[in-house]
Amino acid sequence: MLRTLSRRLLIREAMREDKRGIMTAADAMKSQTDPAKENQRLRQHLALSYRLLEDMKLNEANCNHLTVTAPRRDGKGEIMLLVPGFVESGGGLDWSQVTASSLLGLHEDGSVVEGDGLPELSAASIHLGIRKENPGARVIMHTHTPYATALGCLEDPSILMVHQNSCRYLGRVAYDTGYQPAVAQEEGKRLARAMGNKSILMMCHHGTLIVADTVAVAFDDLYYLERACMTQLLAMGAAGRDALKLLPEDVQESTRATIIDNGSLEKYSNKHFYSLWNKYRQQSSNVFN
Questions:
Q1: What pTM did the predictor assign?
Q2: CA proximity to 274, closest of 37, 15, 24
């Protein structure tokens, strides 16, 4: 009996440590108290997000930016992790090649304190600027996904409550119509002010910006925002904007509450993100390296 139990424990431990030491999804969800371990955990999450958006064709070349605030490996404060805009060998890094170890760590002044390469100017400007105005912005994802970007180019870019995915964003979206090229941290600060207490910013004539506490929630919000915008634009294309049928207000709110409240947003975001983590882990992907 004891021998069988011991064998099961050994097998279970081996399963946890297989796939070249890649954490299971259950372990990956847990933040670490050791700065170096937490730094690596967040690097793996962010690197996987870059790969996933590349797989789903939700990026625009390598000119979008995903960042997360993480402890420095040496424990001396916090840094912002992001993909290098320029690598030492020339050019940039294709998102299909992003790994945990390839990410840069930036000090709040924009200097590189971890990793090799240089950040892209607009990435540093937008994300560092937002964090100076909103220090609680742990994860920021800025992309130019096709349908959300297209909706933001309309005279009225409002996300209308025509589908359950739309209701996920009820009361959570801000709209910025004051487009400026992002070449200084002041533009990031301006965007943070435009965003206010919302978690989604429609950057009209540009793209979108998502702020969340975890990589999983930010990724899931980005994915379903694009789906909501796609549904709206396809419906508008089929019969015109005036033919759209809005859900009743009470249904809008109850749908929002079902998706967002009482831990549901995190629960189902984790379900989505970590199913993809499991897929890449099963493939022994180098994204975690």
A1: 0.91
A2: 24
Per-residue pLDDT of 118-141, as tens digits, reads 999 888 889 999 999 999 999 999
Which of 138, 172, 151, 163 is closest to 265 using CA atoms? 172
Query: Reduced to 3 states, what is the DSSP secondary structure of residue 289?
Result: coil
Length reported for the chain: 289
For residue 18, pLDDT over 60 is answered with no
Cβ pair 80, 67 in contact under 8 A: yes
Sheet holding 139-143: strands in order across? 112-114, 104-106, 78-82, 65-71, 139-143, 207-212, 200-203, 173-176
- Distance in angstroms (rounded) separating the CA atoms of residues 205 and 175: 11
What pairing do the DSSP bridges indicate for beta strands 173-176 and 200-203? parallel
- The Cβ of residue 189 has, within 10 Å, a number of other Cβ atoms equal to 19
Give the mean model confidence (pLDDT) for residues 249-253.
Answer: 98
Tell me what pLDDT residue 7 has: 47
Q: Could you tell me which residues come within 8 angstroms of residue 40 by beta carbon, excluding any fewer than 6 positions away?
A: 100
What gap in Å lies between CA 128 and CA 184, rounded to an integer?
9
Q: Compute the distance between CA of residue 236 and CA of residue 230 in angstroms, rounded to an integer.
A: 10
